[in-house]
Amino acid sequence: MPDTIVISIDAMGGDHGPSVVVPAVAIALSRMPELKLRFLLFGDEARLNEELARCPAARPVCEVRPTTLVIGMEDKPAQALRRGKGSSLWNAVEAVKTSEAQAAVSAGNTGALMAISKLILRMVAKELDRPALVASWPTLRGASTVLDVGANVSSDPTQLVEFAIMGQAFHRAVHGVAKPTVGLLNVGSEEQKGHEEVREAHRLMRDGGLPIDYHGFVEGDDIAKGTVDVVVTDGFSGNIALKTAEGVARFVRKLLREAFTSTLRAKLGAVVAGPALRRMMDRLDPANLNGGPLLGLNGIVVKSHGGADARGYANALVVAANLAQSDYSTEINQNMLRLAEVMGREMEGRE
Amino acid sequence: MPDTIVISIDAMGGDHGPSVVVPAVAIALSRMPELKLRFLLFGDEARLNEELARCPAARPVCEVRPTTLVIGMEDKPAQALRRGKGSSLWNAVEAVKTSEAQAAVSAGNTGALMAISKLILRMVAKELDRPALVASWPTLRGASTVLDVGANVSSDPTQLVEFAIMGQAFHRAVHGVAKPTVGLLNVGSEEQKGHEEVREAHRLMRDGGLPIDYHGFVEGDDIAKGTVDVVVTDGFSGNIALKTAEGVARFVRKLLREAFTSTLRAKLGAVVAGPALRRMMDRLDPANLNGGPLLGLNGIVVKSHGGADARGYANALVVAANLAQSDYSTEINQNMLRLAEVMGREMEGRE
Questions:
Q1: Which of its termini does chain A have fewer beta carbons within 10 Å around, N or C?
Q2: Which homologous superfamily is A5-126+296-326 in?
Q3: CB–CB of A220 and B185 under 8 A?
Q4: CATH topology agreement for domains B5-125+296-326 and B132-283
Q5: Is the distance from CB of B301 to CB of B134 less than 8 angstroms?
Q6: Could you confirm whether domain B5-125+296-326 is CATH 3.40.718.10?
Q7: Are A153 and B187 inside 8 Å of each other by CB?
Q8: Where are the domains of chain B?
Q9: Could you give the C-alpha distances from A293 to A151, A235, A306, B163, in angstroms and in order?
């Protein structure tokens, strides 16, 4: 474990750029007083210095690395690969490759981040095709691991199986569960439900002799129930599930606020219940869940929501710092290598 | 408007059958005391009579229509079409065709219900290909209409456009909004996001000259925000979004219950806040949202969740009764015919 944890930041990524990133650093520091943290901020020098001048708490631990090129939210991954070299996103990821930083964080274009990270850091095992974006989802039975939540737009059956392998390795490394159970997200639990991709992935996981503790199909409401440790889905459905859940959480916070200000009696109840109600509101704040790692890479890359505010972005920094200081990388790589090898053998054997 | 509203029920559908259906009738009666309601219960005569004997409130308004054949949850739609004639599901839908009932309700196999309803009732316009299942979704700005939430496993661009047309017609008929806005669910709002189907549907709705008040792409969190009146998506993603949201709502209810029993102070707060807190819990109960119509058919067919309890099933009966007593059918058919005609012309013009 390094003495000081260094996190490289794509400070131009996302909807807000430096005006969110710099205050987020200050918040992250206050949330992890026990860690020695440093941040490399890649982006527009003048804007970053301006923000740092306004934020004395962040200044001493930040180093500005000037870049001028910015990858836009509209750029396609292929364009980003061709023209993105030297951009804030590219250089933040490269700092992990050169070991200047232990983790990179970006709120930028997801497709570009995935493509560039894959190019620079490479996949941890040759059997793995593409990274997946992971969400840690609060459930009735602790946190579940849900992937892919948006790194890939569609996934063939083999990729879904890879997500299962990567998700298991992640869940074991982060949550210490020896044999995480895996479920495949579908529109019903019966055998014949869903489209061809999901049914073929189901057959592979059930009959493929793979080292997966496979539970079978799960449905959307199984996620929050915590029916399985790892929920596998394609990046399209996973992204919609995650964002829909965030929308519901925000909706409920609004309802709660209305309910407890609706009558004098309700207001009084809110005052009396005080701390319990505030804890509840806090648990429903999607900002506290922002930041998911891109799985399958030789290095830690954490994606923040493009629209995250400073509190949300700070959470992505906390996620990155926690992963960087844990044995996560070593352990997940070992898990993944072992599983990917077995998978490679089994998949070959099927041909 | 008929004097008495008659609802036909597939009493064998769903996880629980008559043991949920009969008590649900009693609950539905108590929730709609102003209506004259009658129910045709299709299913196992002995079991239904047994349940009715236990439920004196339901007995006087129920008529048992004996059937022996049951369509299983595992049956494929094609099997159900071939072998389903005379089943409780089939006969419940047929009662709408023969005008014995004004609406049918089933908690059975969604694919079978869709296929059989389409065969018996036919689509309202020849331009429409397949029915879609609709959810009315509570949002920060009233209710939104979300479809398809599971009638179809995948949808090509033309079908997504049809869902927009049907969703608009539904939203206008049920919520009285003259020109409902339509959004297409995707993983981002930028032009190049998502898979080919969703991008082609986007182009059709934006440039096709269709009578759609098209807003563009929306993301999962836009559903609960109420960004648009009608959210269009394929049945796979829509089903996952809906069930995920239900899971989150249940999770939050559990958290609330825990929060307000965690400390003596919190318990006291709950007592004081009383009615406001109970209203809140009620708004988060997915049972109150159970029951969505299959859109596009010549007749009202309402799908209940397979796992719904008596309170949830009663809600589906309320939905069916409300649609049956409104001008919904006439109005939606007029809307849909008009829109489908324009769509047919425009789509032809494109070729």
A1: C
A2: Isopropylmalate Dehydrogenase (3.40.718.10)
A3: no
A4: yes
A5: no
A6: yes
A7: yes
A8: 5-125+296-326, 132-283
A9: 10, 14, 14, 35
Which of A221, A261, A289 should one mutate to test binding to chain B, selecting the residue with the greatest count of B CBs within 10 A?
A221
Q: Which residue type occupies A56? A: P
Dihedral class, residue B14 (left if φ above 0, else alpha if ψ from -120 to 50, else beta): left
CATH of segment(s) B132-283: 3.40.718.10
CB contact under 8 Å between B224 and A236, yes or no, is: no
- Chain B residues inside the 8 Å CB shell of A272: 265, 268-269, 272-273
pLDDT digits (tens, 9 = 90+) for B257-289: 888 888 888 888 888 877 888 888 887 887 888
Model's pTM, two decimal places?
A: 0.90
The mean per-residue pLDDT over the stretch B232-238 comes to 96
Sheet holding A5-10, edge to edge: A62-66, A37-43, A5-10, A103-106, A300-303, A292-295, A132-139, A142-147, A230-232, A181-185, A213-218
Tell me: pLDDT of B1 over 90: no
Sequence-distant contacts of B45-49: CB under 8 A, at least 24 apart: B47/B17, B47/B18, B48/B11, B48/B18, B48/B22
Tokens (6 digits) for A161: 């199986």
Pick the range with the lowest mean pLDDT from B118-127, B151-160, B271-280, B286-295: B271-280
Q: By mean pLDDT, which of A81-95, B176-190, B253-267, B270-284 is the weakest? A: B270-284
